Amino acid sequence: MTLVARLAELRRRLIVSLVFFAVAVIVAYVLYGHILSLLTHPYCVLQPHHCNLVVLAPLDGFGIRLDIAGYGGLLLASPVLMWQLWRFITPGLKASEKRYAIPFVAASVGLFLLGAFVAWLTFPHALGFLKAVGGKQLTTFYTAQKYLSLILLLMGVFGATFEFPVLLVALELAGVLSPQKLAHFRRWAIVVIVCVAAIVTPSSDPFSMLALAIPMILFYEVSILIGRLAKR
Questions:
Q1: Which of 1, 100, 159, 191 fits 116 for a cystine, CB–CB 3.0-4.6 Å?
Q2: Are 42 and 151 in contact (CB under 8 A)?
Q3: CA 78 to chain CA mean position, Å
Q4: Which pLDDT tens digit goes with each residue over 88-143?
């Protein structure tokens, strides 16, 4: 394809992606109540009888709805966005690269969703720890902006760090790393993983840190096995 044809193809893929994203944002806007209930569920587990979030300004409620619609729309449209990206780069790939691309894309999306789900499951314990640290003299009334920002950031961090095995396997297939090297540096890797988990955990609680570190250590071992199988 010529450069002009590639630019035309890029424009077409971007238009399709934007249309699907806009539709997904509208769907998420309509489903706002269900999404908000899902996000506030960890808080309601901790405080079943009063888990309503507080807004401090008249426009905060509308702004929060728009934010959730944007994030929800991005999540709903992500399969289509990934597919458009895949169709755009396909003509530039070799046959062997095309064979690996689909499993990598599927694994990346699946692991991100798994990481976000683990963060959602862990969040009630994180809130309980943070509440206990403050002491019984403090009454908790979380603002919607602060609470939603924290849980969405936590889910995003977990989702991003759960891409760790995809990166390791890609480096193994590219010949940058070998399963033998990964196995040799296992002890140092565990130390580094725990330190990174402690640093990047937004809530700074031990439950979230362990929920992030333990899967990453398991992923490290799985990456070694996958690398050995791929080499065979």
A1: 159
A2: yes
A3: 12
A4: 877 777 776 677 777 877 888 888 899 999 999 998 888 888 888 877 777 778 88
